[in-house]
Amino acid sequence: MRKIIQGGMGIYIATPGLTKASSINDDALGTLSCTAAERIVPHILQMGDPNEDIRRAFSYFPFQEVTDGILKKYFIKGGKPPNKNFKRVPAFSMYPRADLIKLTVASSFALTWLAKEGHSNPISVNYLEKIQIPHIYHITGMMLAGADFITMGAGITRQIPSVLDAIASGGTPSYRVLVEGSKEGTKTISFNPRSFFGGEFPKDLKRPDFLPIISLDRLASIMVAKLPANSIQGFVIELPTAGGHNAPPRQKGIFDNKGQPIYGKEDEVNFSNLQDLGIPFWIAGSYASPQGLIKAQSLGAVGIQAGSIFALSDDSGMDPVYRKEIRRLGYRNELIIRTDPNASPTGFPFKVIQLPGTQSEENVYNNRKRICDRSALIVPYQQENGKVGFRCASEPVEDYKSKGGKIEDTIGARCLCNGLFSASGIGNPNEKPIFTMGDDVSFLRYLMKDENDSYNASDAIKYLLGTKM
Questions:
Q1: Residue 288 has what pLDDT?
Q2: Long-range contact list for 329-336, CB < 8 A, 24+ apart?
Q3: Quick one: which of 24, 40, 197, 335 could link to 329 by a disulfide (CB 3.0–4.6 Å)?
Q4: Would you tell me how many other CB atoms lie within 10 Å of the CB of residue 221?
Q5: What three-state secondary structure class fits 303?
Q6: pLDDT for residue 468
Q7: Helix or strand or coil: residue 136?
Q8: What pLDDT is attached to residue 83?
Q9: What is the arithmetic mean of pLDDT over 7-31?
Q10: Rg of the chain over CA atoms, in angstroms?
Q11: 157 contacts 129 by C-beta, under 8 angstroms
């Protein structure tokens, strides 16, 4: 088993290129972020599909009439001028349009296929559990492309093994979607890939290994107890210092004098309990060093998952102008990272880099016109008429209130959809980015000769393994 898992980060930060650059090392497992793949791929196509990557991947999709339709709708030869509006992808509903389902399956297929192109080593694909409706379609696409692992966090992921099993066996995957305010609590959606795409849908697809991302050993024990044997092939134990979304503290509402949530003893992981489960695990959160790898292994882990060190490498999809500045500040020990309890409309604490000109600044946030045009993080809720509606705490305040949302939920809520798209340079040019990072960037001092130097994913892996200092 591989000692290092390169984390699946952001929206198009963990690109197919970064995933491949990591996975070709026999000690590392590259992880592709396919969060919002159905919005990433159309954007790239409207940019002219540089290097013909998406079109090349689409040529291997088993249903060419599907990809032909997507190309006809979104591909622009030579690319759209950057100051022009891009064609929007519709939001998901409980019963998505057929063209949106096709786009979602094909998009996750394309990005996964590109991550696997040209090598035979395994890769993993990452999604956020919180974005529930698209899972059955995204996972179908990644499995058609031969994904080897799936990692998933930001929610309770107990339903994923049954989805994997159903798709692999040619069955009908289903998912219980949380609906705020409904009496049942959830509504179940289903998808039959064979009938949707026709009788030629491949049989006996490879079932990817499942690596849930969790924050506590107690949750690992519960998942193992409640799921059938062999449902889980490993755990990623993500500590509060990791980047992106964090699990909220068990004791809520307690903050330090800088407004940061306080994690206490209830949030500590008992690694002995994890070892007793007999399932491999990796540790994430401030372990990105040779010493961190050794420490993780001394706690019984196979190794570590590391994100920030790869996000700041030249192989990531992060906007290179901002990436250079973040590295410079990190090298100088001047980078400030806050755990913001309100920034993410998901309700999970979210790590935010404090960087001039980005959504981290209050004046930038306050001057932004609230708009929900990406709609990747919308939350289903029960309407008075019995139908399911959708809302987001970062949409226009009056819109959110009219949908029964609490005004206090909107305070400080950033538009992560637009912000994270812009962080990878594929967003609306009028939208300011938002960047996330783990608390520890001390690795920069070992990978860079000076504050203007750079490094790639291979350098990061060699450093973590202790072969480059």
A1: 95
A2: 329/355, 330/441, 330/444, 331/444, 331/445, 331/448, 331/450, 331/451, 332/451, 335/437, 335/441
A3: 335
A4: 15
A5: strand
A6: 65
A7: helix
A8: 67
A9: 95
A10: 21
A11: yes
The ranges assigned to domains in the chain are 4-318+453-464
User: What are the strands, taking DSSP E only, across 317-408?
Assistant: 337-340, 350-353, 379-382, 388-391
Q: What is the pLDDT of residue 248?
A: 80
Q: Strand, helix or coil at 458?
A: helix
What is the C-alpha to C-alpha distance for residues 6 and 24, in angstroms, rounded to an integer? 12
Q: Are 187 and 179 within 8 A, CB to CB?
A: yes
Residue written as tokens 């959830």? 186
Query: Comparing C-alpha atoms, which of 77, 76, 144, 72 is closest to residue 104?
Result: 144
pLDDT of amino acid 247? 81
Q: Sorting pLDDT into bands at 50, 70 and 90, what band is 175?
A: very high
- 8 Å CB contact between 465 and 27: yes
List C-alpha distances in Å: 454 to 18, 19, 323: 15, 18, 10
pLDDT band per the 50, 70, 90 thresholds, residue 184: confident
Predicted confidence band at 446 (pLDDT cuts at 50, 70, 90)? very high
What is the rounded distance in angstroms from the CA atom of residue 314 to the CA atom of residue 307? 13
